[in-house]
Amino acid sequence: MRNSLGEQVIFTLFGESHGPYIGGTLDNLPAGLVVDEERIKRALARRRPDGKSSTARVERDAFQIISGVYKGRTTGEPLTLIIQNENVHSGDYPEGLVRPGHADYVAHELSGGYNDPRGGGHFSGRLTAAIVALGEICRMALETKGVAVMTHIYRIGDIYDQTIDNLEENGKTLQNSNFPVLSKKKGEAMLALIEAAKAERDSIGGVTETIISGLPLGLGNPWFGSLEGVLSNAMFGLGGVKGIEFGEGFNFASMKGSEANDGYQYKDGEVVLLSNHNGGINGGISNGEPVVFRLAIKPISSIAKAQPSINTASHENVILELKGRHDPCIVHRICSAVDGLTSIVLLDEFMKAFGKIYFCVK
Amino acid sequence: MRNSLGEQVIFTLFGESHGPYIGGTLDNLPAGLVVDEERIKRALARRRPDGKSSTARVERDAFQIISGVYKGRTTGEPLTLIIQNENVHSGDYPEGLVRPGHADYVAHELSGGYNDPRGGGHFSGRLTAAIVALGEICRMALETKGVAVMTHIYRIGDIYDQTIDNLEENGKTLQNSNFPVLSKKKGEAMLALIEAAKAERDSIGGVTETIISGLPLGLGNPWFGSLEGVLSNAMFGLGGVKGIEFGEGFNFASMKGSEANDGYQYKDGEVVLLSNHNGGINGGISNGEPVVFRLAIKPISSIAKAQPSINTASHENVILELKGRHDPCIVHRICSAVDGLTSIVLLDEFMKAFGKIYFCVK
Amino acid sequence: MRNSLGEQVIFTLFGESHGPYIGGTLDNLPAGLVVDEERIKRALARRRPDGKSSTARVERDAFQIISGVYKGRTTGEPLTLIIQNENVHSGDYPEGLVRPGHADYVAHELSGGYNDPRGGGHFSGRLTAAIVALGEICRMALETKGVAVMTHIYRIGDIYDQTIDNLEENGKTLQNSNFPVLSKKKGEAMLALIEAAKAERDSIGGVTETIISGLPLGLGNPWFGSLEGVLSNAMFGLGGVKGIEFGEGFNFASMKGSEANDGYQYKDGEVVLLSNHNGGINGGISNGEPVVFRLAIKPISSIAKAQPSINTASHENVILELKGRHDPCIVHRICSAVDGLTSIVLLDEFMKAFGKIYFCVK
Amino acid sequence: MRNSLGEQVIFTLFGESHGPYIGGTLDNLPAGLVVDEERIKRALARRRPDGKSSTARVERDAFQIISGVYKGRTTGEPLTLIIQNENVHSGDYPEGLVRPGHADYVAHELSGGYNDPRGGGHFSGRLTAAIVALGEICRMALETKGVAVMTHIYRIGDIYDQTIDNLEENGKTLQNSNFPVLSKKKGEAMLALIEAAKAERDSIGGVTETIISGLPLGLGNPWFGSLEGVLSNAMFGLGGVKGIEFGEGFNFASMKGSEANDGYQYKDGEVVLLSNHNGGINGGISNGEPVVFRLAIKPISSIAKAQPSINTASHENVILELKGRHDPCIVHRICSAVDGLTSIVLLDEFMKAFGKIYFCVK
User: What is the ipTM for the molecules in this complex?
Assistant: First the structure.
């Protein structure tokens, strides 16, 4: 698989930053799911840059579903959605220049020079709009089974958001926000950091945190189909992700088993866990507690500051000072893509575990 | 995929901790690869517990290759290797008791109670012996193309090993060690920490670091077949792994773009990178620099210390005090499995990128 | 896989007969392949109904490549092509009526009634236009390696075309024909049969034959990735295909081993086969001789003649007399789809055997 | 996929004719299925050569299940079964000689000469024993849902068995037979034909027919996951299969739509089909009628009669007169493999359609 994901629900992503359309296909969705186009619009609005913290390239993200939906519901056949590219400034990317930290150079070498380099081509964050739109369709399906997915900015630089402590309340705060933080004060401090980076013609990194509530026990597999593994493989598809951890993650390194283990207890005939250090997953399989993961997001590589680079057309060393319109930080913008991609992965996992029939509307 | 991995070279893992055999199959290997059984024995020896830092269950790991090898070389057809289980104490695992932090409970629920619970059954670290043995066959193939894989203990508790700084020298130090560290002094401090945890009837976590040298540009893919993604999916298959990061990983969160980007320069007509913050991967694709990743390993969940748990047979709450023979730390033992699994993944990636023919012996 | 095919080159098909667009995606094509849109147009013209033997629904098949092509060549990233649906008469398909022999009833039941029933929805032969268009891109790639694919009408009713005996000459006769036969006289007799069926408000079946020349030894695999198997799985995707045979096929039943075996001989240092009863495949693997297969095509199920059926909306038994515009025979129209699909499968097989790099333009 | 099959239940086959073991793995079986070893023994007995119509190589087929079964039931984890090879006469296959019609030559070329040529190595019919044994486990699972699979010799040379007309009665006649025909008289005529071929140091081909009863509507998919397609891909894995047809198959070529369509009718509130020309499948999906398919089996290529061939070791043309112990006909012996493979495919299709949970024992 290259641009596809999944075993039952199969997601395929296509398009280039400056091509006519980007889009994607979801094959083998359950039939009869409601497709609420207003929800998709709101999800795309969350992804759109807003104000000073983001790029000046703003697009309407007008999408069209060209197959797989009939009378407002999924047919179960491939659902393809396309989004037109607008507001394209291809001149901002001079031929032969490769951005340090970006995929420009590997894309050029891998394709023998036949890649579309405009705006990063297929390696552009622009394609996450298709992930957000198609992910929202999966998210609506998950909600019918009580599953909610929420992602917030966990950290930018050394400023941390407050902890998620009330799934319902926190979810309301985060939904529809295009700078999803729980603490307004911490959010302002983060924005100040981003502003400062921008003023220095630079960029800054961060960490996102995702909580999935309402999952039953039984999603995932031992060994190579673990829930951690399939989520990770999907998440590393998002440009800029360089690390992922579940539950206590890297903190486990200095913990004792007695601190890290989540005890069990019967309460009113139900099995409950006494803590959730493992982030809702044991042995690769969801255990019924909320699944928690965090993604390390590197600072965006397209910066205006001078950097040493090369020109693959002229074969010369150059000092690169990018013009173009770039985000000084993508941590907040990536949150909606993480929600969408998580939803796509989870719907596939549900169908692998419980069958397509589980979501089918009778 | 559940217990399988790969698209061209397909690896399948089978067996239970206390069943007659564990083993695995590698399908679609290049034909003509030398299979050096002495190398496999040495790799298995690295995995075996040694002295005080590990379990008292020691096995000879006598393996047999039952298909796919003829006159000491691969035929290109499925290679199946089996390892007999010996020294089994099934009585150490009383029926119905589930270990907090382990897969016991999810395994029981997922299978409707039909799982093999003895020694964790299929969810046991015992199966990593098959990964080590089959991985070594792939590693020998990679070496013929100049690719080396090495893993050391990066950290146990808050003790860090020294940094890998000389691939060749460090590789010699680490190979054949079953407590792979570069700094002897730090290794002793780590062992002391493990001893202390054991004395408290507890366990302790850590972090491993893997360096892959000699990779050409071009392994991996954009989006959902990224080199980071496929390595991650494989690594989360290993019990105890709860996080993975590439290059600077979670440190990227507080870095600026100008610090994180790896500049390019032509030197004697060749393109070189001026640093390797990205851990050898851009846009999901190897860039020619060494690939570097670290794994967060949680403290082993089987501890002798008293813990609250349940008995799924009697439906009672219990205080669990495990007997059995358990490692107080698996960070050092997992290193050989990480090497093996990395080698399996890389051989598949080579074949996806360059074709099976690339490794075929003429 | 449902609407997808392939392991290296992955083809995904989408759309409904009366939706806005049909189309498909080819992922992981080699980069640098020339995409000649005139060739695609000619291939689509071969598929279009012509004169009396076909439906009155004629479409321009205006296509647009919306990703994966830059400056007239493939980039190696997903190539998506869409074709607008025109000339749609949805009123011809009254709600609840199911056509005997067609997928209407299973589509309705499988989707819980949420399928798009208009014109057969996703189960319509209309989608083969996308197969023809995308297949032609693969066919152009194959031609650069000397591989040619040609399909003719082998039989309609009991009228047989003459045998393919000169690959080059026959290829010229068949290319660009939308009633591909070698014998003009037999073709006229076939057309007369089709006319007669149409006059009776009925339809008629037939057999196609495909010859693939120029294949090297080594495509395919033993057991479950056999060249016969992967071609078959693809071909049964085409509506109306109910049988496939390779080489002597069902004639083998009354043959002796001594008649069926293809002897070997060295000639000028090269190994040659003395006959080709096995249709170019031994043990699931191409042997260097032309690959030959035939497809049984059932008579099209949409007929105007009265038939017993049901109305799933009213739950009544009915006598169905279809109106609409239907082909009395699809054997000739399916030939271009068989060529296209064969080309897609072969490009994938080439890449599995020899690597993506084999087709890459330096 | 090469030696693997399936998406949910994944089957992997390994071994060589003269290696220590052959075997296979079934991953992701439902947990709790009864594994009746006596049933597996009987299935293997059906496959064994009996009397004059078959090879003199007779093996006990002693098998061992080495993983995935606990207390007589499946655990849901990989089930691996191995069968020891006995009675091996490797000297019968002189080095460098390739049998016309067999895979010897392609196997040699594909592997660069590193294949195991003894007894055909991995390309040997010997491996079907593993298919029969593992298939029987799937067949037992299917029976709990009322699904029965039966295969008989449809034809040898020009002698046809009588038609299957009573699923229950016919099933009793065929089960446990290692020459499965319905008409005793026709069976004797077939045996006489086989004897005659043997006397001429030759072999003879035939056709098998398989009926699957009890399938619900809804297995399979449109386009590339059609039930016809997945069954075909599996069946072409069996050495000697050169054609497959469903329902009327190649007879459709001379049929009219009005003859070929299967009408629908409501009877007592249930939808019934008035005929079954389509062999239980419409649009790639099971329609509730019995699924019917036939396989063209070529005459076995290993014959004692003199044939022109080559020696790849000496690079000389030779006249080959095989010694060894070969079947003059495999049509009857392949029936048990067809049953087994069909059962494996169907269990996977059930799980794709209805989820793993459908077969799980509560």
Answer: 0.96
